[in-house]
Specification:
The protein has 12 helices and 20 strands. With 418 residues, the chain is an alpha/beta fold. Helix 9 packs antiparallel against helix 10.
């Protein structure tokens, strides 16, 4: 028997009863003869609460201090879960990111893991312990505490599974697996038994927040078999995410997702000369601001306008940077649109099927949904629409690509409706 890494999200450890429920799931895996490392998130909505608290103290909290604050959430749940496991008569020990040696780069609030030390993990496993590790956090080589970005506990779990060469990483959550879209938006939706790393990665990147995108990236890179399953129905095997699904793919679209956390920035009246885009996007990149969709268009007066999207969390810093770059590139106005959502369809089966894009655009048009921007990759098509149209767009696309099911998905937990 090998090592199994289990991860439980915030809703699964929201109160003492649920923590005991998790302890039972962990012990069940131990009783199967496996060594178990458990990664947990902060209880319930703790992280949201801590962010709110910081914003009440200051409008612009320092990112180092934010990491200091947010990392406390996971420290509460690891201690409580270790106590719960011990109360059932099993050996358990909790460890935070620093104690394990989850080494990250020094980018506060979105640090990437660069190394995981395994000596202490192996030592405690050998001594018969169930190890409970704080997700979402790490430490820089200089000893600074970092966090991995919202939802990052999934990535902690997969990275630990990869470092320990674990047999599998099980992500337990409040739904029974990966569905073709968020079951809170379309309750009668198909569930996947198996999905490929590629499709899952693309789905996670475009907003299917059931998995942190970097967790799928890491699973793919180190070939870690990943399962998404229910912490409330332990016998249900959920969805397996692995290297290859089928030799031939019959269904063009595997899933639909939306991302309402982006904002669109428009820079108008830019001179049409080489180097302008390089200066604008170079300045944003230097400040670690990722840009998603980009459109450059030439107006009849010979000037360019560039529209692009960034995450809303980066908006204030992006505006500060663009205010500076604006003088240098001689841009006109900077216009912001916050009322947007990106709706995407994903599927390995859409490769070489040009009709899929046209079907997507027609389906949106039939539902009176205007498309503001479009971007495509090999297995994904994204359209930017009004935020108020996001849910109806998802419903329309699930119908269009035959992703609906007869049964209603079970969603446990107390998260607000999206
Ligand atoms: P956890 O606290 O366990 O990390 P999350 O809220 O991060 O849980 O992720 C689980 C949620 O992801 C579900 O409750 C569901 O609303 C949402 N979700 C979004 N897209 C999907 C999808 N395609 N399949 C399953 N769940 C999805
Ligand atoms: N607690 C963190 C968050 O709410 C990390 C996680 O849950 O994965 O984003
Ligand atoms: Mg999550």
């Amino acid at each position: 028997m090998g090592i199994i890494v289990q991860k439980f999200g915030g809703t699964s450890v929201a109160d003492p009863n649920k923590i005991h429920n998790v302890a039972n799931a962990v012990i069940k895996e131990k009783e199967n003869g496996n060594d178990v490392v458990v990664v947990v998130s902060a209880m319930g909505h703790t992280t949201d609460y801590l962010i709110k608290l910081a914003k009440e103290v200051t409008k612009n909290p320092d990112s180092r201090e934010m990491d200091m604050l947010l990392s406390t959430g996971e420290q509460v749940s690891i201690a409580l879960l270790a106590m719960a496991i011990q109360s059932h008569g099993y050996k358990a020990i909790s460890m935070n990111g620093q104690q394990v040696g989850i080494i990250t780069e020094c980018i506060h609030s979105k640090a990437r893991i660069v190394d995981i030390k395994t000596e202490k993990l192996h030592k405690y496993i050998k001594e018969g312990n169930i190890i409970v590790v704080a997700g979402f956090q790490g430490v820089t080589p200089d000893g600074e505490i970092t966090t991995l970005g919202r939802g990052g506990s999934d990535t902690s779990a997969v990275a630990i599974a990869a470092a320990l060469n674990a047999e599998r990483c099980d992500i337990y959550t409040d739904v029974e697996g990966v569905y073709a879209t968020d079951p809170r938006i379309v309750p009668n939706i198909q569930k996947a038994d198996v999905i490929s790393y590629e499709e899952m990665l693309e789905l996670a990147r475009v907003g299917a927040n059931v998995l942190h995108p970097r967790s799928v990236e890491t699973a793919k890179q180190f070939n870690v078999p990943l399962r998404v399953r229910s912490s409330f129905k332990l016998d249900n095997l959920g969805t397996l995410i692995i290297g290859v699904e089928n030799m031939e793919i019959y269904k063009p679209v595997a899933g639909v997702a939306s991302d309402c956390s982006q904002v669109r920035i428009l820079l108008s009246n830019l001179p049409d000369i080489p180097g302008t885009a390089a200066k604008v996007f170079g300045a944003l990149a230097k400040n670690n601001i990722s840009v998603d969709m980009i459109i450059q268009s030439l107006a009849s007066n010979g000037t360019n306008s560039i529209a692009f999207t960034v995450n809303e969390e980066d908006l204030e810093s992006a505006i500060d940077i663009l205010d500076e770059v604006k003088q240098e590139v001689k841009a006109g106005e900077i216009l912001i649109d916050k009322e947007i959502a990106k709706v995407s369809i994903v599927g390995a089966g859409m490769v070489d099927r040009p009709g899929i894009a046209a079907d997507m655009f027609r389906s949106l048009a039939e539902n009176n949904i205007n498309i503001k921007m479009i971007s495509t990759s090999e297995i994904k098509i994204s359209c930017l629409v009004e935020k108020s149209n996001a849910k109806s767009a998802i419903k329309a696309l699930c119908k269009e690509f035959e992703l609906e099911a007869k049964e209603i998905a079970v969603v446990k937990g107390d998260l607000p409706d999206v």
